[in-house]
């Protein structure tokens, strides 16, 4: 897995003093599966397409 530092232009972010926040968000995002994987996992657990659609709507609204 690539580190967040390798994916982001850190010079600009550090210039604005936002590196800690951006790094934390990137770490959290990389530790989570992508949306499609979470939807497939939910369907495997519940067997309900309605639950998957509800999940998709909730995630989109965030």
How would you sum up this structure, described in words?
InterPro entries: Gln_synth/guanido_kin_cat_dom. By secondary structure, this protein is mainly alpha-helical. The protein folds into two domains: 1-31, no CATH class; 33-62, no CATH class. Helix content is 77%, strand content 0%. The protein has five helices and no strands. It has helices spanning 4-7, 10-15, 19-31, 35-46, 49-61. Helix 4 packs antiparallel against helix 5. The longest helix has 13 residues, at 19-31. The model has no long low-confidence stretch (mean pLDDT 84).
Please write out the topology.
Layout: H1 4-7, H2 10-15, H3 19-31, H4 35-46, H5 49-61
Helix pairs in contact: 4-5
Strand content: under 5%
Largest sheet: none
C-alpha end-to-end distance:
26 Å
Q: Mean of the pLDDT scores?
A: 84
Count of helical regions = 5
SSE string, helix = H, strand = E? HHHHH
Q: Into how many domains do the coordinates divide?
A: 2
Radius of gyration: 16 Å
Q: Total number of β-strand segments? A: 0
Helix content: over 70%
Structural class call reads: mainly alpha
Shape: elongated
Sequence stretches where pLDDT stays below 50 over 5 or more residues? none
InterPro entries: Gln_synth/guanido_kin_cat_dom
């Amino acid at each position: 897995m690539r580190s967040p530092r390798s994916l982001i232009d850190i010079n600009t972010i550090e210039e604005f003093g936002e590196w800690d926040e951006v790094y934390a968000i990137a770490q959290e995002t990389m530790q989570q599966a992508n949306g499609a994987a979470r939807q497939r996992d939910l369907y495997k657990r519940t067997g309900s397409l309605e639950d998957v659609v509800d999940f998709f709507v909730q995630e989109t609204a965030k």
